[in-house]
Amino acid sequence: MSALSFPSATRPPSKRRPHGRRRIAGTIGLATAAWASVAALAPGPQGAAMAADTAVSDQPWRLDRALATPDWLTLSGEHRLRYSTLVNQFRPGLSGRDEALSLRTLVRADVRVGPAWSLTAELQDSRAYLTGDQSSVNTSMVNAVEPIQAHLRYDGRDLFTAGDRLDLRFGRQTLDIGSRRLVARNRFRNAIQSFNGVSGHWRGAGGGEVRGFYFLPVRPRPSGFDAVSDNRVRFDREDFNLQFWGLWLHRPDLIAGIGVETYVYGLHERDQPGVYDSRDRQIYTPGLRLVRPPRPGAVDLDLETNLQLGHRHAGRSPLDTERLSVFAHAHHAAIGYTWATPWRPRLGLNLDIGSGDGDTGNGRHTRFDCLFGPRRTDFGPTGLYGLLGRENLISAGPRLSIQPTDRLSAHVIWRANWLEDRADAFARSGVRDPGGLSGRFAGHQVEARLRFWLLPGQVRLEAGAAVFANGRFLATAPNATGAGTPAYAYTDIRLLF
């Protein structure tokens, strides 16, 4: 279970909602208008011929240069348009084909207010169309008109040792830490998670790092199915009912080019009647990571292990007062080799394990909670798909990636997947056999992605697909949909300005 879950609300039992297709013309118009409006802001012939100028210029077209903003002001942004579709739905309670036309627009302003001080504001507008009553759309895909960053930043240098740097941020912000498996700024996902609080990042001249933060995670609103499907605007909120903190240390070269990361995260939540119904989690997640980054002609590795301790309740109901002790774990191991050839091929082997919880009556909770970590890098596309996750999973297989040019890259990943606990729900599927009679083997996933920079640094095209060949468990579990082989595909265009 993730730190913030995104359940779909109860759907009307009758006809499909017409809101998606009825607005398709306006949606496509909005997508194209976003880029056209940016071009129109540029004065004179530069705006009229933006694409041509970008193609022949050494630098991508940027909004602040077009507007000739002063040195103390930087404006930037991006717009992404994605179409995705899923056939043979795997989620219990849903059926048929799912599709979405997703739009995400980000606009950011950075204002320098002194030699070491600056202000940052970033607005997100994430929407989804074409969804119907049997869609899995939720707040991970939709968050319309929301400020995801609004903070004061201090950037100090040579404070403690020669050549060091200290970055402090106060206010609403996003962040990436370490492997990005437990806390990160979402990239593939349509809506970006943000936090309100304070963070610090110290970097020494030798490459050592220390990071710490104390946050109130921002909870997206609205969360009801109808409101999300209609892309309704309501500002998110954060409060002391959900708190998240962490301390992370990094040494870049422990031995033979291998770096080490050690960290601990804490998550604390409590119920507030009428405001926030929670599982009252009080959990601590220590971790250790050894990493040697990929480079041509060398072996790389990534080994990460986590424990999870504390206590929590089983459900969100205020009437659930039974305290369960938490002991869960998750592990990632990857080793690979990159050939020093023009296409830079890399072949790797990956293994992931996340504990499950099949015994609900023993006073313990052993299903791993992935906190605020994205899944796309390790487990394939999320959004309408997102079948795999770091919970109740044993997953292994090879990964092949290539980069023929600086503009073109691709990868193919195959994973064989089992349940860590045969009586718990498999990963993020929602499929469960409480009796454990459907076996452990869930099936095979094959996933591929292709990226191409149409205009370097300006316009990027991406396409991908994932297919999950059901094993015995997903074919025979009591609440399995029986729909057949889930297959997902998407294509998107990302415009930077």
TrEMBL record:
<protein>
    <submittedName>
        <fullName>Alginate export protein</fullName>
    </submittedName>
</protein>
<dbReference type="Pfam" id="PF13372">
    <property type="entry name" value="Alginate_exp"/>
</dbReference>
<dbReference type="InterPro" id="IPR053728">
    <property type="entry name" value="Alginate_Permeability_Chnl"/>
</dbReference>
<feature type="region of interest" description="Disordered">
    <location>
        <begin position="1"/>
        <end position="20"/>
    </location>
</feature>
<dbReference type="InterPro" id="IPR025388">
    <property type="entry name" value="Alginate_export_dom"/>
</dbReference>
<feature type="domain" description="Alginate export">
    <location>
        <begin position="72"/>
        <end position="481"/>
    </location>
</feature>
